[in-house]
Amino acid sequence: MKKQLLIKSLFCHSVMLGMLAFAQLSYAQATSSPNNEDTPKKITPVTVVKILSETLLSTTNVRGQIETATKPNLAAKVAAEVSDIYLIEGDRVKKGQMLAALDAEAFIIDKASANADIIYLKALIENQKRLLKRNQDLFNKKMISQVTLDDKDTALKQSYAQLLSAKAKLRKAVYKLSQTKIISPINGIIQSRSISTGDYVKAGDDLYFIISTDDIYARLYFPETVADQIKLNMPVILLRQQKGQVEKVEGTIERIRPMLETGNRALLTKVKFTNIHQWRVGSSIQAKVVLTQHENAVIVPKRALVRRPHGLVAYKVTANSNKVVEQVVTTGLTKDDTVEILSGLTLDDIVVLDGAAWLTNGSIIEIVEP
Q1: Could you give the domains of the chain?
Q2: Is the dihedral of CA 222, 276, 241, 247 positive or negative?
Q3: Given 284, 295, 297, 319, which residue has the most CB atoms within 10 angstroms?
């Protein structure tokens, strides 16, 4: 009984294997038959886009701060008591404007004393010149010795030297007197004041710290990766958020340090600009710098490109047909959702936009409206 069941099972298994082999042979013959022209070809619905050209910019964004090249720390040049304070912190000043005054009485006296010395010495010299002439006549008559004549001549020369010294003292007294008026050397804003009325200051003591408003510049730090692309006179757009609005101003790179900073390996540059928005010195800013500019660049939407094993490709629609050709492309700059095509496509070519991922070289397409 068991033997008969085993024989029947083997027979059924053999029949099934035979039927399967016959079916595979029939399918192979059907698919390889050259006369099978009625098989429908696959048509892929797609949207297309026309290649355009546009000017593309390669930019980098960095942060920086507003600084000034001139910020003098005024110090006293003479020792005196502070008599008057005219301007304080936050006041705007103009070049030549008086900030404060020191007690000038002692220097007025010194000036008067020097003037008096000059008057005295001029009178003395005139008298000594007359005496020397008279002694010269007496010497010619052999009435006085050579030593007496030489003494008169030496005395006159000494008086001339004393007159030069008195004139120098007068200039010094005038200079010290002028330094009792503390004058701003620049146009700017007073950052700090270190004196009050009644203070006694010595030469070298700090008086005022002034920030210039004329030679404002932006200090920018560029990363090492783009340092070689930064050049003098490159245009820069400076931006600052102010009261919910973005303020912009254009400038140019005026100075570039030759070495990278040791701490952060960044390239320090100075950007000259006109401070039309009255940005404060020390304010943080952002800067946008154009590294390269490509005129009439050929661009396509990024989603028109497909990554294949042999590279990045686009599917160009063949003229007067519904077929596509696979084109390997090389890309350049990007802008938003578009990318520059350096090779593989030309201006006015038509490429597949939506549906490109489902295509191969020679695929048949049906163009539909997006």
Answers
A1: 43-56+295-367 (2.40.420.20), 61-69+214-293 (2.40.30.170), 72-96+182-213 (2.40.50.100), 104-179 (1.10.287.470)
A2: negative
A3: 297
